[in-house]
Amino acid sequence: MKKLVMTAIFFCGLALTGCKNESADKELSASGAERSTAIPEETTISEALNKKGRQIWYKVDEETSKDSKASVYVFKNNTLRVYSLGARGNLTIGDLSKMTDDEIIKTVQEMEILQLQDDINSKLSSYELSLSSIKQSKSKGYNPTGDTTKIEAVISALKEISASDFEIPAVKYSLNIESDSTGNNTETEEFIFTKNKVSLPIYTNGDDVGNNFNVTARVVQEKDETKLVFESGYSKFQIYDTWYSGLKMKSGDYFVTRDQNKDGSISFVLDQPGTKGVTVDE
Predict the structure, then answer these.
(1) Which of 78, 82, 81, 80 lies closest to 51, judged by CA?
(2) What is the pLDDT of residue 41?
(3) What's the average model confidence in pLDDT over 234-243?
(4) What is the enclosing helix (H) or strand (E) of 48?
């Protein structure tokens, strides 16, 4: 029987603890049956993310249907691993709901390696084409820009690289509250981190791209930080037999994890000013 996918989002004014009683009594429809969603003891997002051991969260497109695209965030002992899947990042929350946690980790690890190998092959083809073009122009008496020796060095370096050679480490993350006009209540909460990536050999020459030459592949930190902004509301929905609980993001997307109770009873809420380890208005 087709499962009915429902999303419930409850906004609780300036403070989550100020919700009216009727908000706690709203019901979700699951598989045609009415389910009570009275809020149990709530878990703050900082407490949830900082739990010991491994846990998997998902950033899900705002539709929250089985076909919604989903990114995988793996937390372990106060660190975060986000997998860079690029064009291969076509996993849906429906796909993921059918996998175990171990299967999910294995799948995204393999996809990330394949994507990195795609990037290596693409750069290699591009440099080989550029080298051929420069040599052809020179043979016709033209004087094209580009150092063929450096291009050949980059090509040689790329041929020596395998995507499976790299181990991308997890990163630290932080949480910051943006308070309301009084400074005493949470309006939004920011989840902030800077991803690691593999920097590949490169040669550029020109006013528009600058002069860069490097033949070493290495893991580096991205220049810009990533910031997910959570709104002051919580969300739950069901995909197939799996319930997900989490928070709605300001972008309209959702940040959720599997409900380990498997019944939609888990609730996550934003931190409030004064929470240990969470900054305010920074």
Answers:
(1) 78
(2) 65
(3) 91
(4) helix 45-49
Dihedral angle, C-alpha 101, 105, 108, 112, nearest 10 °: 170
C-beta contacts of 66-75 below 8 A and 24+ residues apart: 66/5, 66/92, 66/93, 66/94, 66/97, 66/239, 66/240, 67/92, 67/94, 68/92, 68/93, 68/94, 69/93, 70/95, 70/96, 72/96, 72/104, 72/108, 73/255, 74/105, 74/170, 75/49, 75/51
pLDDT at 1: 40
Q: Are 72 and 96 in contact (CB under 8 A)?
A: yes
CA nearest 99: which of 111, 114, 87, 116? 111
Confidence (pLDDT) at 27: 32
Q: What is the rounded distance in angstroms from the CA atom of residue 169 to the CA atom of residue 71? A: 18
Q: Categorize the per-residue pLDDT at 18 as very low, low, confident or very high, splitting at 50, 70 and 90.
A: very low
pLDDT of residue 172: 97
148-159 and 101-139 are packed helices; what angle lies between their axes, rounded to 10 degrees?
A: 150
Judge whether residue 92 has pLDDT over 70: yes
DSSP 125-146: HHHHHHHHHHHHHHHTT---SS
